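Before going further, learn to read the protein records used in this course. Taken together, the tokens spell out the fold as the letters spell out the chain. A record is reproduced here so that you can trace the correspondence yourselves:

***
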Amino acid sequence: MAIGPRPPRAGRLHAAVPEDVELRYHVVHGYRRAYRCAGRGPAVVLVHGIGDSSATWAGIIPALARNHTVIAPDLLGHGASDKPRADYSVAAYANGIRDLLGVLGIDRVSLIGHSLGGGVAMQFAYQFPERTERLVLVSAGGVGREVTPVLRVVSMPVAAALLSVLGLPGMRCQTRLALGLLRALGTDLGQDAAVLMRLVDALPDAASRSAFVHTLRAVVDWRGQVVTMLDRCYLAEGMPTLLLWGARDGVIPVRHAHRAHAAMPGSRLEVFDGAGHFPFTADPTRFLATVEHFLATTRPADWSPERWRELLRAGRPGSAAGRPDDARNRAVARELRSESERSAT
């Protein structure tokens, strides 16, 4: 299902000209930051989700790099980047991406963010609108409270003990069997069993597990997601935005896609039938065709401080200081009222 201009029908995914997508490193603020970089042209930043790394994008980087400079960082605490005791909030991650881009000499980018990375991409656009050209949000966090119960449990104080069990002899086999059962039963979470197993393997030591828990607790508690972008998404007016979601997402439900689409003026929405939380893995051909069509058919956001001030002064549509309260904005306002205690950083 698509809402917005339809991309051309996707053909077979052809291998791109080989590119250097091996990990590179820079030390920023004393911490080693790993990233992949390939291609030439307008810059596109790929931001992975929690517990993941830039390796999650390996299948699509070469194709995107045919027409773009692609930068895919390992967020601090993830992959081959350092894992210090540090600030793992979405705002800190947005700052980290800005600083890496500064080291690389890149001023403006389009961002493609998955899950937690979608929240980081939105935060980057909020903090640095003058540096953001477009947003592609893939199964993004920060839209509603709902999230898989697995992450809610792992966010609790017993998380460290639970995750340490994964390192015991035989537990990898047990985890694989459990994920296989979820897949055999046809559950939504089971759609991504193979990818989830890779994420479990990405937590091999105490430092990795500690960074994972600190990152998770910055965005999820036992009740669900604790940060929201709905209070500020009206500021995305004029920002080309594409929302991509799996219809069978067992981590962040697809209704969040429709909620974000209603709240973000002018956004496009594409739902991948049969896909779970990783639509770029489930159907990379369609994913690439959709993203490349979006990048090719939209103009970079034209940000100005004057327009930013106008939007801030007008306020959120439907708010006391805002514009007429139409049906779309009433739905957003109801969601905000129900989430009024959530952090808005």
The radius of gyration is 19 Å. The mean pLDDT is 82. Residues 24 and 35 are 5 Å apart (CA to CA). Residues 90-104 form the longest helix (15 residues).
